[in-house]
Specification:
By secondary structure, the chain is an alpha/beta fold. The chain has 11 helices and 9 strands. It binds phosphoric acid mono(formamide)ester.
């Protein structure tokens, strides 16, 4: 039995296979409409979510399966003190596969150790968000035709943004990727990540002003400031509007640069950018369904 805790759980070759499957699902959805008949997905979400939970549910429904679960810790027996280990042993009796989001780093890993069914990490604290990374990679590969030879700017909350940490981990396996980290001093990328980039001789720079680097970017990955991970509301208020991507800044970018964002957006991308053909974040949401369909089929070892 296989779980997904980190994007690195799949080799680059396995990821290629997964993305080929996702692209085939996109082109031929009816071929897959009954591939999970009789199967059930559990979504155990101890933290709020719109896209991840609902795209997992849409994915299983599109495959002909059923869904059950809870959308907050308060709506489950966690509110009465039940452990993640006991919850997953229980969920294993009701379903065939589980997607779990938890505010504590490593909680889905604890669940996987006790689980009778495949567990997918749907986001654990500020640590990893592997299915968002799969979504990001599929979006880039589908819209650009490759996953190598990019300068990617990651902008915003690089300290707490788990999507950023997961994506960097995944991209360093591809050739000729260079990173530009754009953040205020307080939200810099963690040292353990820059240490790893140095070790691997992967080029990166850290800057504060987005305008200065816009012309160099092939991809711009915007993120929101993660209010829920701040200890101090005053700091959040001071930093929340540090970056606002607008038409003036987009005018500095390459004609074929893509703007990605894991969403939800707060203020960091002005709605006036949404109609720019380079704004790919809502197409990214759609790719999230295809890649989760491919992931469910892969972890359940269902061949179509
Ligand atoms: N991208 C993402 O994880 O969105 P949700 O928090 O809405 O699931």
């Amino acid at each position: 039995m296989r779980h997904l805790m980190s994007p690195l759980d799949f080799t680059v070759e396995e990821l290629d296979k997964l993305f080929d499957l996702a692209n085939d699902i996109e082109k031929n959805p009816s071929k897959y409409a009954h591939s999970c008949d009789g199967k059930t997905l559990a979504t155990c979400f101890y933290e709020p979510s719109t896209r991840t939970r609902l795209s997992f549910e849409a994915a299983m429904i599109n495959l002909g399966g059923s869904v059950l679960g809870f959308s907050s810790a308060n709506a489950s027996s966690a509110a009465k003190g039940e452990s993640v280990s006991d919850t997953i042993r229980t969920i294993s009796c009701y379903s065939d596969i589980c997607a779990m989001r938890h505010p504590k780093e490593g909680a889905p890993m604890v669940a996987a150790a006790k689980s009778g069914i495949p567990v997918i990490n749907a986001g654990d604290g500020g640590h990893q968000h592997p299915t968002q990374t799969l979504t990001d990679l599929l979006t880039i590969r589908s819209l650009k035709g490759r996953l190598n030879n990019f300068t990617i700017g990651l902008c915003g909350d690089l300290k707490f943004g788990r999507t950023v940490h997961s994506l960097i981990n995944a991209l360093i396996r591809y050739d000729n990727i260079s990173f530009i980290f754009i953040s205020p001093e307080e939200l810099r990328i963690p040292d353990y990540i820059t240490e790893k980039l140095k070790e691997l001789n992967i080029p990166y720079e850290e800057v504060i002003r987005l305008e200065d680097v816009m012309p160099n970017l092939d991809l711009l990955y915007m993120t929101r400031v993660q209010r829920e991970r701040f200890f101090n509301e005053e700091d959040y208020i001071r930093l929340k509007d540090f970056y606002i991507l607008n038409k003036d800044k987009m005018a500095l970018a390459k004609d074929d640069m893509l703007v990605l964002h894991p969403l939800p957006r707060v203020n960091e991308i002005s709605v006036e950018v949404d109609d720019d053909p380079r704004a790919a974040y809502f197409r990214q949401v759609q790719y999230g369904v295809y890649v989760r369909m491919a992931l469910i089929l892969t972890l359940l070892e269902i061949e179509v």
